[in-house]
Design goal:
By secondary structure, the protein is α+β, with helices and mostly antiparallel strands. It is built from 7 helices and 7 strands; from the N terminus they run ββαββββααααααβ. Strands 1-7-6-2-3-4-5 form a 7-stranded mixed sheet.
């Protein structure tokens, strides 16, 4: 749940745009609790601030459908009929062309996975994002990732890694460096670290909250 006592601006589905990043609050499940615990542990060791209750991330394809990496791999869900029991923070990229391309990249990865199951979920990657040191973002690695998908070799993603990957690639295709959008390798971004970087980024702003049970 979002913090109590803070002024919150709520938005609805009709205000969502392609490329919006949705950060999901935990639902009280065992998996959400484990992710939250791991993130809070890292915070206590690094003195970093943040909300460890952010446990998942996805990217909007349009005003209704979110593309996300979860148990079955990269999948698409309609927010008007699915995920109704979750609150989301919504972050929007100031560069519309980058946001729209990121959504297109996500759609392309989804298409590859739907056809040949090449974009599976990475449990090990999700754990590694919390406890490993990670290199800087590298466009060569990003190109190799998409090449592996297109040739059927496959690539595993965890949720926030998938989102960061789409934006790093989109930035590079629009004349920016992948590092300028997100500094580190996409494998470094737990859901909470993604929120921290979005909050500080010159390219993103918080568009509002999408409230549970309200999908107008």
């Amino acid at each position: 749940m979002p913090a109590v006592g803070l002024e919150i601006s709520y938005i609805n589905n009709d205000q969502l745009m392609p490329g919006d990043i949705l950060l999901k609050y935990g639902d009280g499940s065992a998996l959400s609790g484990l992710i939250s615990w791991g993130q809070s542990l890292i915070q206590s060791k690094t003195t970093k601030q943040g909300n460890s209750n952010i446990v998942h991330a996805g990217i909007m394809l349009d005003g209704e459908n979110i593309i996300e990496s979860q148990g079955s791999g990269v999948t698409k869900n309609n927010l008007r009929t699915h995920n109704l029991n979750y609150d989301y923070e919504v972050y929007r990229c100031l560069l519309t062309n980058v946001a729209e391309m990121a959504a297109s990249v996500a759609s392309l990865i989804l298409a590859h996975h739907s056809a040949s199951k090449t974009a599976k979920y990475s449990i090990a990657g999700a754990a590694g994002s919390l406890f490993k040191n990670h290199p800087a973002a590298n466009i060569g690695v990003l190109n190799a990732t998409l090449q592996a998908l297109s040739t059927g070799k496959g690539q595993k993603f965890f949720c926030s890694q998938f989102v960061v990957c789409t934006f790093q690639y989109a930035a590079a295709q629009n004349g920016l460096s992948a590092q300028s959008m997100f500094e580190l390798s996409n494998s470094a971004y737990s859901p909470n670290k993604l929120k921290d970087d979005l909050f500080k980024s010159q390219f993103f702003y918080k568009a509002g909250m999408l409230q549970r049970g309200i999908r107008i």
